[in-house]
Structures are given as structure tokens and as C-alpha cells.
Description:
By secondary structure, the chain is of the alpha+beta class. Helices cover 67% and strands 10% of the residues. The chain has 31 helices and 27 strands. The strands form 7 sheets. Strands 2-1-4-5-6-7 form a 6-stranded antiparallel beta sheet. The protein is flat, with a radius of gyration of 61 Å. 21% of the residues are buried.
Amino acid sequence: xxxxxxxxxxxxxxxxxxxxxxxxxxIGPFLRFTSVIGPNGSGKSNLxxxxxxxxxxxxxxxxxxxxxxxxxxxxxxxxxxxASVEMDFVTKDGEHLIFKRTIKKESRSxxxxxxxxxxxxxxxxxxxxxxxIGLYVKAKNFLVFQGGVESVAAKSPEELTAMIxxxxxxxxxxxxxxxxxxxxxxxxxxxxxNYQKKKGITSxxxxxxxxxxxxxxxxxxxxxxxxxxxxxxxxxxxxIRERIDTNQGKLKEKNKLLKDTTxxxxxxxxxxxxxxxxxxxxxxSSLELENKLKKKQKTLDDLQPKWLKIQEEIRHLNKxxxxxxxxxxxxxxxxxxxxxxxxxxxxxxxxxxTLQKEAEKRFSTENEQESISxxxxxxxxxxxxxxxxAKETAADQAELTQLVRQQKLIQESIEAKNSKQQExxxxxxxxxxxxxxxxxRFERVNNAKEAVKEQRVRLDTEIxxxxxxxxxxxxxxxxxxxxxxxxxxxxxxxKVELKVSQRRIxxxxxxxxxxxxxxxxxxxxxxxxxxxxxxxxxxxxxVLLGKSMDSVVVETQEVAIECVKYLHEQRKPPMTxxxxxxxxxxxxxxxxRNNLSNxxxxxxxxxxxYPTRIQNAVLYVVGNTIVCPNIEDARKLCFGKSNxxxxxxxxxxxxxxxxxxxxxxxGPGDQEKRNKDWDAELAIAAMxxxxxxxxxxxxxLRELSRTLLEVEREQLLASELTGIKQREKDLEAEAxxxxxxxxxxxxxxxxxxxxxxxxxxxKTAEEGEIKKLNKSxxxxxxxxxxxxxxxxxxxxxAIGVENIRDYEEKRVMIEKDKMETRLKLGNQxxxxxxxxxxxxxxxxxxxxxxxxxxxxxINKELKKLHNEEERQKxxxxxxxxxxxxxxxxxxxxxxxxxxxxSTIQTTKKVLSEITSAVGNITRQIxxxxxxxxxxxxxxxxxxxxxxxxxxxxxxxxxxxxxxxxTNDDENDTERQGGExxxxxxxxGEEKERDVMDVEDVEFNSQEKQMGSQEMREMTDREEDIVxxxxxxxxxxxxxxxxxxxxxxxTNQQFLEQINTLTAEMQKLAPNLKAIDRFEAVSERLxxxxxxxxxxxxxxxxxxxxxxxxKAMRHKTFMTAFTKIASIIDGTYREITKDDDHIGGTAYLxxxxxxxxxxxxxxxxxxxxxxxxxxxxxxxxxxxxxxALALLFAFYGYNKESPFFVLDEIDAxxxxxxxxxxxxxxxxxxxxxxxxxxxxxxxxxxxSQAEGLIGVFRDQEVESSGVVSIRxxxxxxxxxxxxxxx
Length: 1285
């Protein structure tokens, strides 16, 4: 159990019939760091679910769809109706709180009962109590479910924001924030509504205030205005008549000049045609020669790479041969040195073996000479004497033994140093020889490196030059290809432009603007309607639609009015609009359609494709018009005796239009002329220039193809360069290795020299010690020898030796000498044999033979390649000669083509000048004709205005003023009389009721909608009207024929006079109701102002309250976020650090700093020694560590959560990360008195816990069981055993 000083914690859990736990189970006590272990399926995670359940977590988060799923149920047993989990929680003050949650099953549903210390309470009270002890269950920042640890790190920014809101407590302001925001927006909207209302009433008041003038002298001003208008009309008509006469004289002169210039143009066109035919022949011949040149060039291109490849192979083999020759020389020298070394070692081995034989022979002779032996009595006497001497000289013998031992050790040390000195001398000689050889090899390798480097630089420079040339050629080639594509596109566009007039382009642009500005604009008739077969019906469709091709189809009349206003404002040319909601159409004549089914004629509506939504507009334009193959069929339909009804028809062959009245228009060439563009000749010249530019670019592309042939050469050089670089790399590695070995040998020789220098003084010192020991030993031996001589006196005399030591030394020294001699000679023989075996095992001869064989193979291959090179060289030479000859022929022909092209261009230039002159004259004629038509149109408009406004003009032959008759009365009579019989086709021709025209805004004139032919007829008839400019009342001719009169200035004076009178009349027009309405509006304004002030005040109050709550929410959220963000990096670094690294980096970022709780929080973590990546791209273990760091950072904000429950967080961790996590968990448990309950399957993790809770499956009762172990007890026992040991 934990003490109260250890902080708040879970003491025990009591489970009753919860999930797999049948009956009542008391689990605990839980220590500061407790691990839950057990096999899969035993119920470990159900223990985690039990803790979450008692904390109030929803059943859906506990791997169950509802509460009933949490009640224990075994197969074949009756379901239980009750389950509960009780948690004994100890606060920081040591107080025990018993939290309990019970499931009560009622029929098909179940409910939860919450208790604290045995008292039933609501969930809200229960949850608030948990929050008081630091458990924010909704945030789940202290709960990590199985498989959920990675999802913590991978939470979306919005989910992280929600967690921080829950932890910080800013969520409690959320509802009030949203309510006040809604109120504020409503009040602001109400304020704006009242403001607009007040503004409208103020404007209305201002308007009525200005309408207070009265109308004075209205009739007098009207009479003056009519007189001024008459004077203005007469002046304008006079000037129009004068300018028409002048322009007709100019027109005759221009027509004569046009005829002469057109004849010159025809002559130049015939000349150009003949020269183009001649150019085509030359061009065809040039193409044949070019194809022949390409074939020859291709043959040469195919041969050159093979020749170059063989040359590269020869160079490569020569380099290999040269390299092998050098290797051969090196190996031969090495083999010679090896041979001498082996001979020397074999001679040394023979000498040592001879010494061994001589030593054995000497040992045998010495054994034979040894003849001293003791009798049994003498041996017994010898042994007794030795015992007596040993007893009497025991102290001296012990001291002597010690001194002899020291002497022996020193002597062995000297001998070892002598042996080592000899070995070092041999090693130094060997190293000196090896160092000389390595220096020579190093020098050769460096020379080879320099040669290879020079070769690499040369190849690299050559490749870069080729690449640079190829790159320039490729860039130029790409540029030329793009230009060719652009030229082709522009030529096609130019062709299209030749077919579309400039006026049509302007109309299309204006319609596109309408579509963007106004909703309900569909487009022009020409954009929306196309014939089903353009080749067959194209001309007929053009004639049929006529001026209506440019009519704009709109949804409503209001849209049309807006478009007309825009045209007036922008001063655009007039346009016709077809509002679908106003135009009236009749049904298609089905009887007529059926009659035409077996003939070649068709209804016009049947040959057109159009969107269904504009069908009424199409019917309005074409009506029941018939499309006939030719003029004969059209006449039969329109004038045949069998047809009682008249029809409107158009022919497909030449575009002739027959009206119901019998009037025929159009014919061959009329419509084609309409479709021609004014600048057609200039466009043709521009297109010819584009074609010339394209031909020049094609020729340049052909020249570039030769430059690009170096690609294969570049590939061969690149292949060789790769080999050279590899060779350079190998030589660099070899040089590095040799340099390393040289340095090692040099260092080893220095070490040997130093060691040899140190051995000499050591040997001298040891020899001095031996001399001292010898003196001491000799003194002791003399004393011992004196006693021995006394004891063995009689024995020595008996065996005939001077003393007993002579006898012993002879026998012992002989054996010792044998042993030492044999050992020394054996060591020498073994050393020589090892060296000899090493030298023989180096196998230098085999490497030398292999190099010699490789040189022979290279020579054979070189011979073969030289022969092949000669054959390829001959083939390339012949192919080059053929290419040169073909190129000469091609260039000669190309020069002829260019000369002809120059001649054609000169002819074209002359033709272009003439064509331009024709165009200029034509435009001048058109300008004059247009000016005449414009003048006539202006005169017609003036006549119509006089008729509409009842202005009487003085006419020749009349004494009084009369209104001019423009024959409109007759037309009106005909239209009125035939109104009941008027067909839909005639309504489409006239376009006078439902079609809105720009001119209709000013004058409601029928003639504005008539075709050009009818307008011309109308203006011709008006030539018969002669105004009497010499009328005695006015005297106009005398007054306006003077040259001093300025037409524009006079018109302006009349206009200003009329406008002044009109303005004065408009000012005097009174509005008698304005005063009463002004008072009513003033009262309404007063009420509305009060309402606006009240709404504005409420809006300010609502905004103030909202900003207060907003500030509270922002402060609460940012306080938590700032602290968590400051903690997260240190926490993550602390978890991930190790001995080699200080740890990773982690941080939090806000997506919005103004109102962060409405947006997301981005979490990023960068593990140690890793580059920055998004959290989703981290491994499972890295995500786990990042998630734990985030949870611990949440805890670090207020340190209120007393415990963490973690389910299998180590699933994705390796051993290193497990060690780090365990270390940090133990640190937090110790530092912050924080309790950890961890479900784990890895021994490395749970072995570090203070206690274990083992969960097992009891098969007999079909229930999970629990056992608890306190690991700290075992640790104490282990420590005691270690101390006892």
C-alpha cells in the first residue's frame, strides 16, 4: 500500500460481474508503478475498461455498443442483471473516496447508477467530483486505450484543440460565447436594417423637398421651342442636301480609278500563279535530292558510331595492356625477391638441422664416457649424508634456494630480452625491406594516378564540350519546334480571321461582356444556331438569318433594357435583342412539313441545330421558311398554281430569298461578298509571311540534325570516362592503402628502435643484479660445501672424486645441457620453417602467370580490332564521299528554289501593293457610300421626326407649310388592312413589336428594323421630296448659303436653344402633392431615427458582453496552451535522450492566435538523429513516444491528474524506447508522486514496475482471475542475499 504522503492514487478496485470477471473481485493494492500482465484473452484490457467505466466513460468507448454488453455473460448460462465497479481512491490528504458505478438491467435496456461513499448522486455531480481531484474524463488525457496511443499523437488539430479546451476549462465559456455571438450578429443586422431604412426615407424627403416650383408661361415656352426646332430641321436638311451632292461627284471618280487598278491586279495574279507552278516543280526536285542526302547521311551516321566504338575499344585495350605490363614488371621483381628469401631460409634450415645432428652425436659420446656409479652401501651412505647436510644447513639452503630462484628469474628475463632483441632486429630488417618495396609501389601508383587524372580531365572536357554543343542545339531545336507549332497555329488562326469580319468580332466581345455582367444572356443567333450540314446548308442559313445573325438572345425584357443602357453608356454601336419572355411565335406548319417530306426541300427549322431553351427565338427568326435546292423549286413553291398559300423560301445553290410578297433578293456572289473581311488582302500577305518563316525554320532544323549526331560519340566517351573514374578510384584506394601501410611500417620501425633502445639499459641493470646475487650465492655455497666436505669426506675418497659436488654436477649438468641445446635448436628450426611456409604460400608465381596470359589475350583482341577498324574506316570514307556529293547537288537545287522564292516574293510585294491600293480605293468608295447612306438616313430620321412631332416644312409648289409624305402612310395602311392575315414570317422580317432595338429607346421607328434593301428604297423615294429653302416666310437659302456659316456651331446653337427651352419647361412642371408627402415623410423619418438609435445601442451592449466572454475564453485557453507548449519540448527531450544524444524536439503551433479555440493546434515531433517529418510519417514507436510526451505535457499543465492508465503502450516500442519510457515513467512517479497503471506484454517494461497484477483465465468457472505481487519485496531479498554473500 502507498502512504498518504505519496499523493493521491487508486488504492483498490472491486469488480462484480463486469465483463469477463464473474462474481466479486478485489484487485489491488495498486502501487506507484503497477504493471498488469497476462496472456492474450485473459481480461487485461477489461481491467482498463473497468477503471474507465467507474470514471464515467461512455460504453461505446469500452468496446461495447451498450451497457448490457458490459455485464458478465457466459455461454449456456442465464444472463445477469447487474454489474458494478467500485474504486477506492485516496486523496492527497489521505481521505478515502469510494466511487462506484452500477449497471442495472431493465428488460431490454440498462441504466447506470453513480455513487460516492454509498450515496446515490447524478452524473453531473459525479463528474464534478472527479474534476475536483484532477480527473477530466472527457479529455481522456490520462487514459490510453489499447491501440490508441498512436492515435493520441495523430489527433487532428481540431481534436487537440478540444482536448486543451477540456483541460484548460475554457469549454465552459463555449455555450455562452456562441449565444452572445449569435445575439450580437442579430443586433448588428437589425442596426444595419434600420440604418438602410433611415437612409431611404432621408433620400425620399430630400426628393420631395426639391419639387416645389410652379409652372409659369408654359404655352409661350412651348411655342418658342417649336419654332427653334423648325429652324434647326431646315438648317440640317439644307446641309445634308449640299453634302450629298458633293459626295456623289467624288463617288464617280473613285469608281473609275477602282476599275483601272483592278485590271492591274488581275495581271499580277496571273504572273504570280505561273511562277508558283514553276516553284513547285523546283521544290519537288529539291525534296527528292534532300531525301537522297538524308539516306546517305543516315548510312554515314550508322557507320561512324561503330568506327568510333572500335577506336574506343582499342584505346581501352591499350591502356589495359600498359597497366598489365607495369603489373608484370612489379610481380617479376617481387618474385625474384621471394625466390632469394626462400633460398636463404632453406640454407638456414639446413644449418640448424646439421647442428641438431652434431649435438645428438655429442650427447651420445658424453653418456658413454660417464662411468661413475655407487654401490648400495655407498648410496645409503650418500643419502644419509645428504639428510645430515640438509638438516645442518637448512637455513642456508632456504636462503640459497631463494637467491637461486631470483637469479634464475633474472637470467630468464635477460634471455627473454636477448631473444626479443634478436626478433626485433629480424623484424626491423624485414620492415626496412618491405618499406623500400612499398615506397616504390607508392611512387608507381602516384604516377599512374596522375596519368589517369590527366586522361579523366581530357575526357571530361571533351564530353562537356559535346554536351554544351548538344544542349545549345537541343535548345535551339526545341525553340524552332515551338515556333513551328506557333506558326502553324497562327496560320490557322489567320485563316479563321479571314472568314470573320471585324464587326462580328466586336459583337462577340460585347456579348461576352454581357454574359459576365448580366445573368440571362445566352449569345447571338450565330453563336447558338448552326446548320446540321454546313457544306450543304451554310449559304442558305446565312441568307435566312440575315441581320438576325447578330441578334442577341436574352431571358427577359429587363435584361435587354440593361444591355441597351450599357451600350448607350459605352457609346457602342446599336444591337438587336430577342427577349424570350416577350416575343410571340406561331406553331410550325405541320401540314406544310408533311407535304415537303418527299421532296428535296425542307423546313428551315429542321436544318438547324440549337439549344432547346431558345426555340422560340429561332422560330421567331425563321418561322415557316422553306429551304429549297434551287430557284426553280423555290418558284414552284412560292408562285405555283397548285399552291394557294404564299410561302417564304430560300435557295441552297445561290442563297436567293423569295418573300411572301413575291419580292426576291440575293443571288450568286451577294452573300459571299458580305462574308469577306475588309482587310482580307492584308491578312493573306501576313499568312504568306508566316509560311515563309515556317519554311526557314524547317531548313534550320535540318542543319541542326547534324550537330545532334555527336550524341553517340558522347555516350562512348561517357562509358570510357566511367571506366577511367573507376580506375582512378581504385588507384586512389590503393595509394591510400599503401600510404597507410607505409605509415604503419614507419611507426612500427620507430617502436622497434625505441624498444631496442630501452632493452640495453634494462639488460645492463639485470646483469649487475646477477653479479651481486652470484657473490651472495657463492658465500652460502662455500659454507654449505664446507659442511658437505666434512660429511662426505670418506665417501668422496672411496669413489675417487675431490668432493661430492663434482659427482652431482657431472650427472645434472650433462642432462641440463642436453635439454637447453635441444630446446634452442628446436625453436630456431620452428621459426625458420614458419617463415619458409609463409613465403611459399604467397603464390607470386601464379599471379605473374595470370598477368602474362591476360597480356596475350589483349594482344589477340587488339589484332582483331585493328583489322575491323580498317574495314570500318574504308566504309566511312566511302559514305562520306557519297554524302558530300549529295549535299553539293542539294545545295545547288536549294539555291534555285531560293532564287525562285525571291522572285515570287517580289511579285507578291507588287501584288500586295496593288491589292492594298484596291483595298484603299474600295474603302474610300465604301466611306463615301456610307457617308451618303448616313446622310440619307439622317434626312429620313429628320422627316420621321417631323411626322411624329407634327412639324410642318415648306415644300416646293406649296404656299403653306406641310408635313412631308415618306410613303409610310401607304405602308401603314397595308399593314393595318392585312393585320389579320399577317404571317409569322412577315412579322420576323419587320421585327417591329417584340424586338427591342437600341434606336427604339429614342424613336419608335419601324424603318429602324427594316433590311438594308428596304431602307435604300425608302431613301430613294425621299429624293422626290423637295424642301423650299427660298420660302418667303423664312428666306432660308440666302440666310445659310454664305461660307461664313459653321454647320457644327450653328447646330450646337440650335441644340442649346432647344435644350434651354426644354430645361426651363421641365423646371416649371409643378408637383402639387409634394408638400403633403413631404410632411408624411418627415414624420416617418423621426420614428425610424428613434428605432435606429435604439438598435445601435443594443448592438453595442451585445458586442461588449460578447467581447468580455471572448476575452475570458481566450485567456483561459491561451494560459493552458502556453504552459503546455513550453513543457512539451522538455518532456519529449527528457523521454528520448540517451548517452549519445540530448533527445528530440517537439512543439505545438496554433493555426489562429486571435481565436485559437475555433481552429486547430498542430503537433510536431522530431525524434533524435532524424530529419523533420509530419507526425503521420513517423514509425509506430516514434508515434508512441510522441503521444506519451503529449500526455505528460498535458499533465504538466496543472499536475492535477493523480494517475495514468496505459493499455499496451509498449506494443510498437523497441527495447531502446522501452528503456527510455520506463525511465521517464519511474521519474514521474517519483518526482510528481504520480501513479501509473500499465498493461504490458514485454518483460523489459513490466520488470521495472514496483508491483505486478497478473490476470489469468480460470477455465473452470469461465472467469478472469487476478493475482498481485509486490516486486519491491523481491528486490529487498536480493539485496540482503548479496550483502550476506
